[in-house]
Design brief:
Blueprint: H1 13-20, H2 22-41, H3 46-74
Helix pairs in contact: 1-3, 2-3
């Protein structure tokens, strides 16, 4: 898709994915920041917190990977 009126040529999907990657980036930061804080408060629960932290990380990264695949699935419509 090209948007010539705004002076942008090429694929706008890369711009869309760049904007969509902000959400998972913030989510990963929150997961690990709060996980480290929780482990500092309760060191005896570090194993459980760490495993939950990695599950949350995997789910958040899955959203980013789905976002990078969507422009290929829907194509440019040409």
């Amino acid at each position: 898709m090209s948007i010539l009126a705004a002076g942008v040529t090429g694929s706008v999907a890369s711009i869309g994915y760049g904007l969509a990657a902000i959400g998972p980036g913030v989510g990963v930061g929150l997961i690990f920041g709060n996980g480290v804080q929780a482990m500092a408060r309760q060191p005896e629960a570090a194993g459980l917190i760490r495993s939950n932290m990695f599950i949350g990380f995997a789910l958040t990264e899955a959203l980013a990977l789905i976002g990078i695949v969507m422009p290929f699935v829907y194509g440019t419509g040409k």
